[in-house]
Amino acid sequence: MGSSTSCCCSQEDDEGSKIGAGNASWRIFTYKELHAATNGFSENNELGEGGFGNVYYGKMSDGLQIAVKKLKSMNQKAEMEFAVEVEVLGRVQHKNLLGLRGYCAGAEQRLIVYDYMPNLSLLTHLHGQVTGEVQLDWKRRMKIALGSAEGLLYLHHEVTPHIIHRDIKASNVLLDSDFEPLVADFGFAKLIPEGVSHMTTKVKGTMGYLAPEYAMWGKVSESCDVYSFGILLLEIVTGRKPIEKLPGGAKRTITEWTEPLIVKGRFKDIVDPKLRGNFDENQLKQAILVAALCVQNEPEKRPNMKEVVSLLQGYGPKGKVMRMRLESDKNGDDLMALDQASDDGDGNHYDESSAYGVFGAMEVQKLQDPYKRYGDRRMAKHR
Ligand SMILES: Nc1ncnc2c1ncn2[C@@H]1O[C@H](COP(=O)(O)OP(=O)(O)OP(=O)(O)O)[C@@H](O)[C@H]1O
Ligand SMILES: [Mg+2]
Hints:
By secondary structure, this protein is an alpha+beta fold. 32% of the residues lie in helices and 14% in strands. The protein has two domains: 4-115, Phosphorylase Kinase, domain 1, CATH 3.30.200.20; 122-363, Orthogonal Bundle (Transferase(Phosphotransferase), domain 1), CATH 1.10.510.10. The strands form five sheets. It has a six-stranded mixed beta sheet with strand order 1-5-6-4-3-2, sandwiched between helices. Helix 4 runs antiparallel to helix 6 (222-238), helix 6 runs antiparallel to helix 8 (281-294) and helix 10 (320-326) runs antiparallel to helix 11 (330-343). It binds adenosine-5'-triphosphate (ATP) and magnesium ion. Belongs to the protein kinase superfamily. One of its GO terms (molecular function) is protein serine/threonine kinase activity.
């Protein structure tokens, strides 16, 4: 699909070409059929707005429900994102990655077609209109965390060449009717040539989720996704945004908020109050510890996604993998001690004066609120 943008679909054609080659059954759509499916891209069909453009709900004449992402403006940057997204999507196939249904690349338009996800994005449930309904119980949250991690594991370790997503965040985790997560949006993805451990690139992604070495020096590796995943995991567990605006206007990152509580072993104070105490305590501890490992400042100390998945699955390595990676890490030792301390049921015996940070947060002033664009006006319109 390297020449994706050169494939044109005419606005006059009624039927798009069926390509269906490769690993998934995607095809080229015509502008006319997408126009018809989305009610002329009507405001009522709008599911959301992102950096690329608007996303519309659509229903094809055969009943297939789709989501159509329509490029806002045609410029080189947007064209590149479109090409990367289509190129990458054409290569991946995994139960936790949102695959490509097709696309339309005419003279004036660029549109990407996906399967419609009836439960929209994780963002909608954690911070949008439906948060009050608490559809995200603990079991679903853990399923979303594990599924997203499995999608990332596939990108980092299974597909060739390996892929770094670079924009892991709550709005890019979509939820199907069973709340199975599908990681979406590969417009910023980077394909990693074999043997390359990291590259230096222009920084893309969303503030609040960016690994420090990437935000500051543009150093990108799989570990940047691991960091973003750690932030996402904290978000899933706490129900808090990666960056919060405090009353005086200052901003606080989720790591800054959780850090002192983790150090003191106050795991139960970290968990989202909307769960009303309905959570599995061991899983909670494990999830927080995994998140804390992922958001360490030094990329080499973070686990890889294989380790993250097995830790989240609760397999043997509880302690083992962590110990292995954190042997010489003072903070990591504290985490391990913490784990044991909280196992004793004494979550509060840490002295605050010794609370020297388990992972160290980024400077608050440098960060912006990634949510200010979203009004979340569209939940459940189409269900
Ligand atoms: N396949 C889909 N099914 C249902 N809803 C979708 C689908 N794709 C996107 N959406 C909705 O549209 C919203 C906007 O998506 P989009 O990817 O354009 O922007 P974003 O993720 O919020 O920001 P960014 O441009 O930085 O990725 C999502 O948050 C989600 O609610
Ligand atoms: Mg997105």
